[in-house]
Structures are given as C-alpha cells and as structure tokens.
Amino acid sequence: PSYRVLTNERINKHVLEAQYAVRGAIPLRAEELREQLEENGADAGLPFDSVVSCNIGNPQQLDQKPLTFLRQIAALTEYPDLLNHPSTAQIFPQDAIDRARSLLQEIGSVGAYSHSMGVPAIRKRVAKFIDERDGHPSSPSQIYLTAGASNGVSNLLQILISGPLDGVLIPIPQYPLYTAALALNAARSVPYFLDESADWGLDVADLKKNLAKARHDGTNV
Questions:
Q1: Rounded distance, CA 101 to CA 199, Å?
Q2: In CATH, what number does 148-220 get?
Q3: Which pTM was predicted?
Q4: Domains of the chain: which residue ranges?
Q5: Where are the beta strands (DSSP E) in the chain?
Q6: Whether pLDDT at 3 is above 90
Q7: What angle do CA 97, 99, 102 make, to 5 degrees?
C-alpha cells in the first residue's frame, strides 16, 4: 500500500524546504573538478592545479595548523594505552599528558555517554576560566556544552521558536545553517545586510528598517 512507502509527499515539508548551501551546487562542482585533477593531472585541461574548499569557513583547508595541545589530548584520551607507552614522553609534552590523565580520571572513558549538559568536570573548568577572564562568578550548572556551534544554534532556535509567525534576525552574508535551521523549525528569516565597505560592519539603519518591515508583516521577531 502507498502509505507504507516514503515519498516526498509524506516527508516533513519543512525538511524539503530547508536548503543548506554549504553542500550546494558550487561545492559539488568543486568536488567534480578536484576529481578531474586527481584522475588526469595536467591533462585535465584546467587553468589551475588544485581546489581549495573555502565554503565551510574552515581555515585548516588553507593549511592553518590545528592547535596541537587539543589534538594531543584527543589522541591520549581516545587511546589511553598511549599514556603507558614507553615512547609517549618523547612524543607528547608533559602538560598534555598531565591533562589527559586528569580528564580520564574525572570522566572515565571518553566513549561513554555524559551528562546532557556536558561533562560536569569540564563545565567546572569552563566556569573557572570565565571567573578568571571576566572577574565575574560563573556557575557550572548554568553552562551547557554542545557538539559544535551548529548543534548549539539548532538547540537555541528550537527553544526560541514557538510558531510559524516567529522570526529571527540573521546577518547577510550568513552561514547557511541559520536559514536551514529556521526552515526546519517552520520559522521566518528576518535578514539584515552587513556593510562590505565598512569591513562588513553593522548598518544600524538597515537593521532597524528590516526589523520594522518584519513586524509590519506580522512577524514576532
């Protein structure tokens, strides 16, 4: 029977409406060109010999070196047997080894599920950092860790949006996550344009104009 088959008509319409341009036509074309270069090299007939993916805002695509301390801790906590290997002291600095040991002591296996707000011990470290940076008390119970910025944005929008008349101000140019997440939540995008001639600064007059228009159109911004 047709009701047992998943079709476009039966899929959540908001999922069909969502567009995530980070994986859109230009990146797909770039991948095709990269494959051409890998297969044919100089015979590909292209006026360049490499493709750099800048669409996801990842500076490591442009050869920025990752933060070694974080990578070292990730390696040691993901594979704790390294901590007892005779060569570890020659490969890893002592501060990374010490941090990995303390984290494993506090967390246990990093493969285990943690508290939904994030590992309590790490939230305490974050609170201490905020205390020292801002000179203002910070409570671990009010810190919520997420698996990356995208997850955090999606969580916040789910909390903020209560109906299809709700809208959220988003900057243009924007990271496509914003419009995609708003579409998934059946909410409205309220764009405001950044001023390229002012180093992409905020144009307050344009912001106010778009805010007033959205409210005039019945949007709860």
A1: 44
A2: 3.40.640.10
A3: 0.67
A4: 1-63, 148-220
A5: 167-172, 188-195, 201-202
A6: no
A7: 110
